[in-house]
Amino acid sequence: MLLTPPRPLLRAESPGTCPAGPADEGTGRELLALLRGTTAARPRFDPGLAGGLRAWLEDAAYGVVARRGEDAPSLVLGPRRLLDTDEEGPRRAASRRSPRSEERAGTEAEPGLEARLVHALFRQLVHTGAVGDPLADALDALQASGGAVSARAVAALPVAAREVLAASLARQVANLRMVVPRLVPGWMPRTDDHVAIPLAGGRVVLQGTFDLLVGVPRPGTASLCALGLSTGGPWPRERRTLHYLALLETLRSGTPPFRLALIESTSRRYGVEDVREEHLRALASHIVAWLSADGRSHTEGAARA
Amino acid sequence: MLDRLTDALNAPVPAPDPATWRASLDEAAATLARLAVRRAGAGRFRVTDHDVRMAFSGRADDGDSAPFAWTARTARRALGLSAVRLLATGAARSPADAVRARLEESARWVRDGNPCASLLDRWLAALPAAGRAAVGAEAVTWATRLWCALDWGALGAAPVIGRDRWWDSPHSALLALRGRADVRTARAALVVLSGPRRDSVRAELALVTLVDALRQREQAAPGRVVGWWPDSGHLVRVEPEPAVLTLAAEAVALVLAGAAPTLRPAA
Fold first, then answer.
1. Residues of B in contact with A136 (CB under 8 A)
2. pLDDT tens by residue, B185-218
3. Could you report the predicted ipTM of this complex, rounded to two decimals?
4. Is the minimum CB–CB distance between A120 and chain B shorter than 8 Å?
5. Considering only CB atoms, which chain A residues are within 8 Å of B234?
6. Stated pTM of the model
7. Inside any domain, residue B134
8. How far apart are the first and last CA of chain A?
9. B234 belongs to a structural domain
10. Which of A178, A193, A211 is the last residue of a domain?
């Protein structure tokens, strides 16, 4: 695969250092310029790469089927399950005990809900360029997306907890306004693009969702950019999640995205990097290892559960 | 994907032996006639690909499941197809523009009391702006995936986008079959699939072939049906073979065997 050399870039700012601004105050121009790069240099790739990666994963998946049995229900794996490492467990537990999370204890109506709300606001920002009252808009979006139960859970929160949640959403939207690029419709921006790659005849499924994909697929050329939204997860894991999604896109269409961007809504941190063959191979290798060795305990655990 | 899917729709369709085809079609029609007579008086049945899928998975949609409700997910196909229609005719330049135009049209119809306004239009009109944006975002993704997956210029004259076909049983006004296709060309029908790969998918697609064959009885066999999962890029082709008619008729029988009388509410 011939891909342009990586040009990793990281812009980090302390959370809350910039005041919230109107939608047109932040431009996301720098991120946009980094995503575009030189338009003439869209990389081509080795057409055999996707087939090779798939064959590698298929072998490992058939090993799982051999252990679990032909009739076992499909093993559906997403980035959270596949990419969590043993070292990250204690770190995440520590982050759960951080002063910031203690300050917000009791404000979460259900686990992951705040991330879903931020995600809904991100989609709105991408497609309309504007967000009004962040909490109200996020709840309206959640309800229209079939999340009425979650929306009611937020409505049932104590006033103080709702205020903390509203303030957190407002802060994150202000950050997103500053960094999320304004994408012209011709770039075909689409959010929540779900990928599911069946292996071993569908008995193992690798799945994930692109927060934002940009670009028109072109046969034989890496022509897509993927942008991920992190709502506060460990940066390295979020970055690996993007690499994982790039691998899934390679398996789906035969071509990886050529560039990845990661935005953190709790700060204005973002990073842009080119997809490299090493990223894809590393992820494939990790999944193969998970499925063949580490995965044994995971799948057995899942079977017991 | 662009080339693979377009090629699958454009490739020459092998014509079945006319006599065998005719015999299989007569047999399928006879099976449906028996089913219609047996079920007469039991209620109204509209058999769709969804019902076939449920029947094969052993989960009859017997009314115990949650009732249908409009959400961003259930609305995305209808809005997405409208958007792709606008793109194909050149009335919109991007999926986002097309979906926005469709949402504006929807609001206008409801506001003006236009009889074209559907239940979906009225649901959309009642949503707050952020809710409508969420629905639009989902439809943009759906439409973009379909729009980018095909070489539209290579599909021949004016492909038909998003027209489901119905076959009403001549033996009972209570039985109807639906053949759902998202894009139809002179040679083939494309069905956008969702959910996991499953054993029932050939039967689901065979229903499209059966409906087309029953509607055009005196003509040649219908075209190929191509099922496509945008999530994975996988394709399934169902050629117009006599065995496909048998498979579809058996699938309908399976649905009716496990169905409660209110399989689908009457429109």
1. 128, 130
2. 999 999 999 998 888 999 999 999 999 999 987 7
3. 0.89
4. yes
5. 198
6. 0.88
7. yes
8. 41
9. yes
10. A178
